[in-house]
């Protein structure tokens, strides 16, 4: 399987610059999470990726060459607005979509049977889509994206509104497709889920790639990091009189401390111990949600601020992995 490359995509709707030179590689055999605030440009990028929208600038590469219309037929796309025919039965719908993507009637029927079993919607095969719960409609929508055994999977918020069992089913299917070598890209606002499921995360901000990499690569390079400390009954402000603490804030059941310059964890430990029994002390690894907030929160900037590249995008440590792919 080949990577799907979105290369230098720009797209404007009226006065709204939806994408600004966005470049992103979706690698075969990996799940890439596509995250960003509302209106950051994820849907626009995916629609261009599957060929339902033309970019103003940039191109979509499948492997080394620009993707052709025939090749996009081999892509699987789950649109955010969901594109099912409400009055058609599930079975008819999936079979029809399979045929549209080039399968014979018998192959399409087999694929419908297989995916309705896999996604646990066999009991709904003869029902009209509109009569299903939203979660089950979403399972059908995923089946619709998979029925022709696609070479690439692009899914726009596939997890929104799913119950935990459906989240597990959906996650398992995406993982299996990636293991088969398919490049998988999905957008989501559920950052815990993205962190768990994705091999790589692309963070988009105001139409640009703010950062892309594995969770490890996205973490700040600062080797000092922060220290999480939990002390029995000490309250949240005990670091205020610790010389080893430059700053602190409440976090989970304890506090997150920035070590002061020249101080070590041992200095902090000694000072913390004076405040009570230490339950936990560990180097803090920021979650994806924290990294995301750091990178994306200033996205409320007015549109005129969009002209300059975002600092993280120009940070080689944060885009180095992408560079390797595009090189
Ligand atoms: N067809 C359209 N016509 C006009 N503006 C559009 C159109 N599609 C997208 N936009 C605008 O482009 C920008 C990017 O939208 P897009 O839907 O790609 O963002 P998103 O990251 O998917 O957002 P969300 O997380 O809210 O779904 C937004 O400002 C949006 O209003």
Automatic annotation (TrEMBL):
Residue numbers spanned by region Disordered: 292-327
One of the Pfam families matching this protein, by short name: DrrA1-3_C
Membrane topology recorded in Swiss-Prot or TrEMBL: Peripheral membrane protein
Entry annotated with the keyword Hydrolase: no
Source organism superkingdom: Bacteria
Keywords: Antibiotic resistance, ATP-binding, Nucleotide-binding, Transport
Family annotation (InterPro entries): AAA+_ATPase (IPR003593), ABC_transporter-like_ATP-bd (IPR003439), ABC_transporter-like_CS (IPR017871), ABC_transporter_ATP-binding (IPR050763), DrrA1/2-like_C (IPR025302), P-loop_NTPase (IPR027417)
Location of this chain's protein in the cell: Cell membrane
Residue stretches making up the ABC transporter domain: 4-231
Bias (Basic and acidic residues): 318-327
Gene3D superfamilies: P-loop containing nucleotide triphosphate hydrolases (3.40.50.300)
GO molecular function per UniProt: ATP binding
Family (UniProt): Belongs to the ABC transporter superfamily.
Name of this chain's protein: ATP-binding cassette domain-containing protein
